[in-house]
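Now read this:
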Amino acid sequence: MLLKTRGVVVKTINLGEADKIITLLSEKFGKIQAVAKGARRTRSRFIAGTQLFCYGDFLLYKGKTWHYVNQADIINSFYKIRNDLEVLSGSTYIVQLIAEVAQPEQPSEALFDLAVEALRTMSEGEGDTQLVIRAVELKIMDIAGFRPVLSRCVNCGKAQRLHWFSPSSGGVLCNDCRKTDVCCYNISPATLEFMKTLINWNLTRVRCIKINNKILKELESIMRAFIGIHIDKSFSTVRFMDNIRKLE
Protein backbone atom coordinates (compact mmCIF):
# COMPACT_ATOMS: atom_id res chain seq x y z
CA MET A 1 0.00 0.00 0.00
CA LEU A 2 1.33 3.45 -0.94
CA LEU A 3 0.98 6.44 1.39
CA LYS A 4 1.43 9.98 0.10
CA THR A 5 1.94 12.80 2.58
CA ARG A 6 3.89 15.90 3.42
CA GLY A 7 6.28 15.44 6.28
CA VAL A 8 9.23 16.67 8.31
CA VAL A 9 12.18 14.43 9.13
CA VAL A 10 12.55 14.64 12.92
CA LYS A 11 15.01 11.80 13.50
CA THR A 12 17.46 9.66 11.51
CA ILE A 13 19.30 6.44 12.38
CA ASN A 14 21.88 4.69 10.22
CA LEU A 15 20.96 1.13 9.26
CA GLY A 16 23.50 -1.32 7.91
CA GLU A 17 26.12 -0.04 5.47
CA ALA A 18 24.00 2.26 3.33
CA ASP A 19 20.42 2.45 4.57
CA LYS A 20 18.75 4.87 6.95
CA ILE A 21 15.69 4.80 9.21
CA ILE A 22 13.89 8.13 9.31
CA THR A 23 11.23 9.23 11.75
CA LEU A 24 8.78 11.32 9.79
CA LEU A 25 6.26 13.68 11.34
CA SER A 26 3.69 13.41 8.59
CA GLU A 27 0.76 15.68 7.93
CA LYS A 28 -1.72 12.89 7.21
CA PHE A 29 -0.52 9.93 9.26
CA GLY A 30 1.27 11.31 12.32
CA LYS A 31 4.66 9.90 13.35
CA ILE A 32 5.96 7.19 11.03
CA GLN A 33 9.25 5.32 10.90
CA ALA A 34 10.41 4.42 7.41
CA VAL A 35 13.46 2.78 5.89
CA ALA A 36 15.22 4.67 3.10
CA LYS A 37 17.15 2.02 1.19
CA GLY A 38 20.60 3.19 0.07
CA ALA A 39 20.01 6.73 1.40
CA ARG A 40 23.60 7.07 2.63
CA ARG A 41 25.14 6.31 -0.75
CA THR A 42 26.65 9.34 -2.48
CA ARG A 43 24.46 9.09 -5.56
CA SER A 44 21.26 8.04 -3.80
CA ARG A 45 18.09 9.83 -4.86
CA PHE A 46 17.12 9.86 -1.18
CA ILE A 47 20.30 11.45 0.19
CA ALA A 48 18.90 15.00 0.39
CA GLY A 49 15.25 14.32 1.13
CA THR A 50 15.96 12.15 4.16
CA GLN A 51 18.24 14.60 5.99
CA LEU A 52 17.23 15.81 9.46
CA PHE A 53 14.85 18.83 9.29
CA CYS A 54 13.89 18.17 5.66
CA TYR A 55 10.32 19.22 4.84
CA GLY A 56 8.90 17.63 1.75
CA ASP A 57 6.41 15.46 -0.09
CA PHE A 58 6.93 11.77 0.67
CA LEU A 59 5.65 8.63 -0.97
CA LEU A 60 5.91 5.62 1.35
CA TYR A 61 5.34 1.95 0.71
CA LYS A 62 3.92 -0.02 3.64
CA GLY A 63 5.49 -3.44 3.94
CA LYS A 64 4.77 -6.22 6.44
CA THR A 65 7.07 -4.76 9.12
CA TRP A 66 8.30 -1.37 7.94
CA HIS A 67 7.32 1.56 5.83
CA TYR A 68 9.78 2.22 3.01
CA VAL A 69 10.59 5.54 1.34
CA ASN A 70 9.61 5.33 -2.32
CA GLN A 71 9.98 9.03 -3.14
CA ALA A 72 11.09 12.19 -1.32
CA ASP A 73 10.64 15.59 -2.95
CA ILE A 74 12.08 18.50 -0.98
CA ILE A 75 9.97 21.58 -0.27
CA ASN A 76 12.48 23.14 2.13
CA SER A 77 15.65 21.63 3.58
CA PHE A 78 16.10 24.54 6.03
CA TYR A 79 19.78 24.35 5.14
CA LYS A 80 20.69 27.66 6.84
CA ILE A 81 20.08 26.01 10.22
CA ARG A 82 23.47 24.33 9.79
CA ASN A 83 25.33 27.64 9.48
CA ASP A 84 25.18 28.38 13.23
CA LEU A 85 26.04 25.87 15.95
CA GLU A 86 23.55 27.26 18.50
CA VAL A 87 20.75 27.32 15.93
CA LEU A 88 21.65 23.78 14.81
CA SER A 89 21.65 22.37 18.34
CA GLY A 90 18.47 24.29 19.20
CA SER A 91 16.69 23.01 16.10
CA THR A 92 17.82 19.46 16.85
CA TYR A 93 16.41 19.77 20.35
CA ILE A 94 13.10 21.07 18.98
CA VAL A 95 12.61 18.14 16.59
CA GLN A 96 13.65 15.70 19.34
CA LEU A 97 10.99 17.13 21.63
CA ILE A 98 8.42 17.02 18.84
CA ALA A 99 9.31 13.41 18.05
CA GLU A 100 8.88 12.54 21.71
CA VAL A 101 5.34 13.94 22.04
CA ALA A 102 4.10 12.91 18.58
CA GLN A 103 2.00 9.76 18.53
CA PRO A 104 2.58 6.93 16.03
CA GLU A 105 0.18 7.16 13.12
CA GLN A 106 -2.00 9.73 14.90
CA PRO A 107 -1.92 12.98 12.89
CA SER A 108 -1.83 16.35 14.66
CA GLU A 109 -2.27 19.33 12.38
CA ALA A 110 -1.20 21.70 15.16
CA LEU A 111 2.04 19.82 15.87
CA PHE A 112 2.88 19.45 12.20
CA ASP A 113 2.30 23.15 11.49
CA LEU A 114 4.38 24.09 14.55
CA ALA A 115 7.26 21.89 13.38
CA VAL A 116 7.36 23.62 10.01
CA GLU A 117 6.95 27.08 11.53
CA ALA A 118 9.66 26.44 14.13
CA LEU A 119 12.21 25.19 11.59
CA ARG A 120 11.43 28.07 9.23
CA THR A 121 11.90 30.59 12.06
CA MET A 122 15.16 29.00 13.20
CA SER A 123 16.43 28.87 9.61
CA GLU A 124 15.72 32.55 9.02
CA GLY A 125 17.92 33.29 12.03
CA GLU A 126 16.27 36.49 13.20
CA GLY A 127 15.74 37.25 16.88
CA ASP A 128 17.01 35.46 19.98
CA THR A 129 17.43 31.71 19.42
CA GLN A 130 16.77 30.85 23.07
CA LEU A 131 13.63 32.99 23.05
CA VAL A 132 12.27 31.08 20.05
CA ILE A 133 13.10 27.76 21.74
CA ARG A 134 11.19 28.75 24.90
CA ALA A 135 8.16 29.72 22.83
CA VAL A 136 8.26 26.44 20.89
CA GLU A 137 8.59 24.45 24.14
CA LEU A 138 5.46 26.08 25.54
CA LYS A 139 3.52 25.48 22.35
CA ILE A 140 4.61 21.83 22.16
CA MET A 141 3.57 21.24 25.76
CA ASP A 142 0.23 22.90 25.05
CA ILE A 143 -0.39 20.65 22.04
CA ALA A 144 0.68 17.59 24.04
CA GLY A 145 -2.01 18.34 26.63
CA PHE A 146 0.18 20.01 29.25
CA ARG A 147 -0.81 23.64 28.83
CA PRO A 148 0.37 25.36 32.03
CA VAL A 149 -2.23 27.05 34.23
CA LEU A 150 -1.06 30.67 34.44
CA SER A 151 -4.04 32.80 35.47
CA ARG A 152 -5.06 31.16 38.75
CA CYS A 153 -3.52 29.01 41.45
CA VAL A 154 -3.50 25.43 40.21
CA ASN A 155 -4.16 24.25 43.77
CA CYS A 156 -6.87 26.55 45.19
CA GLY A 157 -8.00 28.62 42.20
CA LYS A 158 -7.09 32.05 43.58
CA ALA A 159 -5.99 34.67 41.07
CA GLN A 160 -3.86 36.80 43.42
CA ARG A 161 -0.24 36.59 44.60
CA LEU A 162 0.78 34.03 42.00
CA HIS A 163 4.51 34.04 42.72
CA TRP A 164 5.39 30.36 42.33
CA PHE A 165 5.35 27.76 39.55
CA SER A 166 4.87 24.06 40.22
CA PRO A 167 6.26 21.90 37.38
CA SER A 168 4.59 18.77 38.76
CA SER A 169 1.16 20.40 39.15
CA GLY A 170 1.48 22.15 35.81
CA GLY A 171 0.86 25.74 36.80
CA VAL A 172 1.27 28.64 39.18
CA LEU A 173 0.74 28.56 42.93
CA CYS A 174 -0.30 31.39 45.21
CA ASN A 175 1.76 32.28 48.27
CA ASP A 176 -0.64 30.33 50.52
CA CYS A 177 -0.25 27.13 48.48
CA ARG A 178 3.47 27.19 47.72
CA LYS A 179 4.12 24.63 50.48
CA THR A 180 2.12 22.02 48.55
CA ASP A 181 5.16 21.62 46.28
CA VAL A 182 8.61 21.85 47.89
CA CYS A 183 10.14 21.81 44.38
CA CYS A 184 8.23 24.84 43.07
CA TYR A 185 10.04 27.73 41.39
CA ASN A 186 9.74 31.40 42.19
CA ILE A 187 8.26 33.19 39.19
CA SER A 188 8.26 36.95 38.79
CA PRO A 189 5.17 38.81 37.52
CA ALA A 190 7.14 39.77 34.39
CA THR A 191 8.04 36.14 33.60
CA LEU A 192 4.46 35.03 34.21
CA GLU A 193 3.09 37.60 31.77
CA PHE A 194 5.83 36.69 29.31
CA MET A 195 4.78 33.03 29.37
CA LYS A 196 1.21 34.01 28.53
CA THR A 197 2.49 36.04 25.59
CA LEU A 198 4.66 33.23 24.22
CA ILE A 199 1.82 30.71 24.26
CA ASN A 200 -0.55 33.00 22.36
CA TRP A 201 1.75 34.74 19.86
CA ASN A 202 2.97 33.13 16.64
CA LEU A 203 6.72 32.74 16.17
CA THR A 204 6.96 35.59 13.67
CA ARG A 205 5.84 37.99 16.41
CA VAL A 206 7.81 36.23 19.14
CA ARG A 207 11.17 36.62 17.42
CA CYS A 208 10.75 40.40 17.37
CA ILE A 209 10.51 40.59 21.18
CA LYS A 210 13.34 42.18 23.13
CA ILE A 211 13.41 40.62 26.57
CA ASN A 212 15.47 41.00 29.72
CA ASN A 213 17.99 38.17 30.05
CA LYS A 214 17.00 37.59 33.69
CA ILE A 215 13.43 36.81 32.63
CA LEU A 216 14.66 34.49 29.89
CA LYS A 217 16.90 32.58 32.30
CA GLU A 218 14.07 32.26 34.84
CA LEU A 219 11.77 30.89 32.16
CA GLU A 220 14.45 28.48 30.94
CA SER A 221 14.80 26.94 34.42
CA ILE A 222 11.03 26.60 34.79
CA MET A 223 10.56 25.03 31.36
CA ARG A 224 13.35 22.50 31.84
CA ALA A 225 11.76 21.31 35.07
CA PHE A 226 8.26 21.33 33.55
CA ILE A 227 9.31 19.31 30.49
CA GLY A 228 11.50 17.00 32.55
CA ILE A 229 8.58 15.95 34.75
CA HIS A 230 5.89 15.57 32.10
CA ILE A 231 7.92 14.25 29.17
CA ASP A 232 10.31 12.27 31.38
CA LYS A 233 13.23 12.29 28.98
CA SER A 234 16.72 13.76 29.11
CA PHE A 235 17.87 15.50 25.94
CA SER A 236 21.62 15.51 25.30
CA THR A 237 21.26 18.51 23.02
CA VAL A 238 20.25 20.65 26.02
CA ARG A 239 23.62 20.00 27.66
CA PHE A 240 25.34 20.66 24.35
CA MET A 241 23.58 24.03 24.01
CA ASP A 242 24.69 24.94 27.52
CA ASN A 243 28.30 24.15 26.65
CA ILE A 244 28.12 26.27 23.49
CA ARG A 245 26.81 29.27 25.43
CA LYS A 246 29.58 28.91 28.02
CA LEU A 247 32.14 29.32 25.24
CA GLU A 248 30.58 32.54 23.93
